[in-house]
Protein backbone atom coordinates (compact mmCIF):
# COMPACT_ATOMS: atom_id res chain seq x y z
CA UNK A 1 0.00 0.00 0.00
CA UNK A 2 1.27 3.46 -0.86
CA UNK A 3 -0.11 6.49 0.91
CA UNK A 4 0.70 10.05 1.88
CA UNK A 5 -0.75 9.23 5.31
CA UNK A 6 2.14 8.21 7.49
CA UNK A 7 0.95 7.99 11.08
CA UNK A 8 1.36 4.75 12.97
CA UNK A 9 -2.43 4.41 13.08
CA UNK A 10 -2.71 4.69 9.28
CA UNK A 11 0.10 2.17 8.77
CA UNK A 12 -1.31 -0.40 11.21
CA UNK A 13 -4.82 0.01 9.79
CA UNK A 14 -3.54 -0.58 6.26
CA UNK A 15 -1.57 -3.65 7.30
CA UNK A 16 -4.46 -5.06 9.34
CA UNK A 17 -6.80 -4.61 6.36
CA UNK A 18 -4.58 -6.92 4.31
CA UNK A 19 -1.73 -4.87 2.84
CA UNK A 20 1.52 -6.85 2.60
CA UNK A 21 3.50 -3.65 3.11
CA UNK A 22 2.88 0.06 3.68
CA UNK A 23 4.98 2.80 2.12
CA UNK A 24 4.64 6.49 2.86
CA UNK A 25 5.11 8.92 -0.03
CA UNK A 26 7.53 10.22 -1.11
CA UNK A 27 9.84 7.23 -1.43
CA UNK A 28 12.71 6.24 -3.67
CA UNK A 29 12.51 3.86 -6.59
CA UNK A 30 15.22 1.59 -5.13
CA UNK A 31 13.20 1.19 -1.92
CA UNK A 32 10.03 0.40 -3.90
CA UNK A 33 11.84 -2.25 -5.94
CA UNK A 34 13.35 -3.81 -2.81
CA UNK A 35 9.96 -3.96 -1.09
CA UNK A 36 8.34 -5.52 -4.17
CA UNK A 37 11.06 -8.17 -4.26
CA UNK A 38 10.53 -8.89 -0.54
CA UNK A 39 6.78 -9.34 -1.05
CA UNK A 40 7.41 -11.63 -4.03
CA UNK A 41 9.85 -13.73 -1.98
CA UNK A 42 7.27 -14.13 0.78
CA UNK A 43 4.52 -14.92 -1.72
CA UNK A 44 6.62 -17.50 -3.56
CA UNK A 45 7.69 -19.14 -0.31
CA UNK A 46 4.05 -19.37 0.76
CA UNK A 47 3.00 -20.72 -2.66
CA UNK A 48 5.67 -23.44 -2.56
CA UNK A 49 4.62 -24.33 0.98
CA UNK A 50 0.97 -24.66 -0.05
CA UNK A 51 1.44 -25.99 -3.60
CA UNK A 52 1.02 -29.67 -2.89
CA UNK A 53 -1.64 -29.55 -0.21
CA UNK A 54 -4.87 -27.81 0.69
CA UNK A 55 -6.67 -28.91 3.83
CA UNK A 56 -7.37 -32.51 4.71
CA UNK A 57 -9.72 -33.10 1.79
CA UNK A 58 -7.60 -31.93 -1.16
CA UNK A 59 -4.14 -33.10 -2.15
CA UNK A 60 -2.45 -32.28 -5.45
CA UNK A 61 -0.27 -35.02 -6.87
CA UNK A 62 3.00 -33.64 -8.28
CA UNK A 63 2.68 -32.45 -11.87
CA UNK A 64 0.54 -35.38 -13.01
CA UNK A 65 -2.74 -33.44 -13.41
CA UNK A 66 -4.27 -35.52 -10.61
CA UNK A 67 -5.97 -34.34 -7.45
CA UNK A 68 -7.12 -36.45 -4.56
CA UNK A 69 -10.32 -34.86 -3.32
CA UNK A 70 -12.08 -36.40 -0.34
CA UNK A 71 -10.31 -39.68 -1.04
CA UNK A 72 -11.27 -39.82 -4.72
CA UNK A 73 -8.76 -39.57 -7.56
CA UNK A 74 -9.73 -36.79 -9.99
CA UNK A 75 -7.97 -36.48 -13.36
CA UNK A 76 -7.77 -32.87 -14.54
CA UNK A 77 -6.95 -31.15 -17.80
CA UNK A 78 -3.80 -29.03 -17.91
CA UNK A 79 -5.81 -25.82 -17.57
CA UNK A 80 -7.90 -27.15 -14.65
CA UNK A 81 -4.68 -28.26 -12.94
CA UNK A 82 -3.09 -24.83 -13.37
CA UNK A 83 -6.18 -23.10 -11.99
CA UNK A 84 -6.36 -25.39 -8.96
CA UNK A 85 -2.61 -25.00 -8.23
CA UNK A 86 -2.92 -21.22 -8.46
CA UNK A 87 -5.93 -21.16 -6.14
CA UNK A 88 -4.27 -23.61 -3.71
CA UNK A 89 -1.25 -21.32 -3.50
CA UNK A 90 -3.54 -18.57 -2.18
CA UNK A 91 -6.05 -20.68 -0.27
CA UNK A 92 -8.52 -18.66 1.74
CA UNK A 93 -7.78 -15.45 -0.14
CA UNK A 94 -9.39 -13.99 -3.25
CA UNK A 95 -7.37 -14.63 -6.40
CA UNK A 96 -8.29 -11.85 -8.79
CA UNK A 97 -9.73 -12.89 -12.14
CA UNK A 98 -7.09 -10.81 -13.95
CA UNK A 99 -4.33 -12.56 -12.00
CA UNK A 100 -5.63 -15.96 -13.09
CA UNK A 101 -5.96 -14.85 -16.71
CA UNK A 102 -2.42 -13.41 -16.72
CA UNK A 103 -1.00 -16.56 -15.10
CA UNK A 104 -2.81 -18.93 -17.47
CA UNK A 105 -2.78 -17.13 -20.81
CA UNK A 106 -0.24 -14.33 -20.30
CA UNK A 107 -0.83 -10.62 -20.05
CA UNK A 108 -1.36 -10.34 -23.81
CA UNK A 109 -3.37 -13.56 -24.08
CA UNK A 110 -6.61 -13.17 -25.96
CA UNK A 111 -9.38 -15.21 -24.41
CA UNK A 112 -13.14 -15.15 -24.61
CA UNK A 113 -14.76 -13.36 -21.68
CA UNK A 114 -16.17 -16.57 -20.20
CA UNK A 115 -13.36 -19.01 -20.94
CA UNK A 116 -11.93 -18.87 -17.39
CA UNK A 117 -15.40 -19.38 -15.94
CA UNK A 118 -15.93 -22.38 -18.24
CA UNK A 119 -12.73 -24.02 -16.99
CA UNK A 120 -13.60 -23.32 -13.36
CA UNK A 121 -17.11 -24.72 -13.82
CA UNK A 122 -15.66 -27.92 -15.36
CA UNK A 123 -13.15 -28.16 -12.49
CA UNK A 124 -15.92 -27.77 -9.91
CA UNK A 125 -18.02 -30.44 -11.62
CA UNK A 126 -15.09 -32.88 -11.58
CA UNK A 127 -14.68 -32.20 -7.87
CA UNK A 128 -18.37 -32.91 -7.32
CA UNK A 129 -19.25 -29.33 -6.49
CA UNK A 130 -22.79 -28.04 -6.92
CA UNK A 131 -22.55 -25.08 -9.35
CA UNK A 132 -25.52 -23.44 -7.61
CA UNK A 133 -23.79 -23.47 -4.22
CA UNK A 134 -20.06 -24.17 -4.51
CA UNK A 135 -18.22 -24.77 -1.26
CA UNK A 136 -14.62 -25.36 -2.39
CA UNK A 137 -14.07 -22.83 -5.20
CA UNK A 138 -16.26 -19.85 -4.41
CA UNK A 139 -16.68 -16.96 -6.84
CA UNK A 140 -16.38 -13.44 -5.47
CA UNK A 141 -17.09 -10.09 -7.08
CA UNK A 142 -13.49 -9.82 -8.32
CA UNK A 143 -12.19 -13.39 -8.53
CA UNK A 144 -12.28 -16.78 -6.85
CA UNK A 145 -11.50 -18.18 -3.40
CA UNK A 146 -10.35 -21.72 -2.66
CA UNK A 147 -11.87 -22.32 0.75
CA UNK A 148 -10.58 -24.67 3.40
CA UNK A 149 -11.36 -28.11 2.01
CA UNK A 150 -12.59 -29.60 5.26
How would you describe this protein?
The protein is about 40% helix and about 20% strand. A hairpin with a 3-residue loop joins strand 3 (about 55) and strand 4 (about 60). It has 2 domains: about 1-50, no CATH class; about 50-145, Arc Repressor Mutant, subunit A. Residues about 50-55 have low confidence and may be disordered. The chain is of the alpha+beta class. It has helices at about 10-15, 30-50, 80-90, 95-105, 115-125; strands spanning about 1-5, 25, 55, 60, 65-70, 70-75, 95, 135-140, 145. A 4-stranded antiparallel β-sheet has the order 3-4-5-6, covered by helices on one side. The protein has a 3-stranded antiparallel β-sheet with strand order 7-9-8. A two-stranded parallel sheet has the order 1-2.
Give structural attributes.
single chain; alpha+beta; Arc Repressor Mutant, subunit A; 4-stranded antiparallel β-sheet; 3-stranded antiparallel β-sheet; 5 helices
Structural class: alpha+beta
Kindly provide the radius of gyration, computed on alpha-carbon positions and rounded to a whole number of angstroms. 18 Å
Total helical segments:
5
Strand and helix order: EHEHEEEEHEHHEE
CA distance, first residue to last residue: 33 Å
Amino acid sequence: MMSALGTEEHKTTGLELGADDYMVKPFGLAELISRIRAVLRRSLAHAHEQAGRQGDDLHLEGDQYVALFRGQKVTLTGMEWKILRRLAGSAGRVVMREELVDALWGRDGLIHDHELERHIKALCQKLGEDPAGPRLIVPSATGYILTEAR
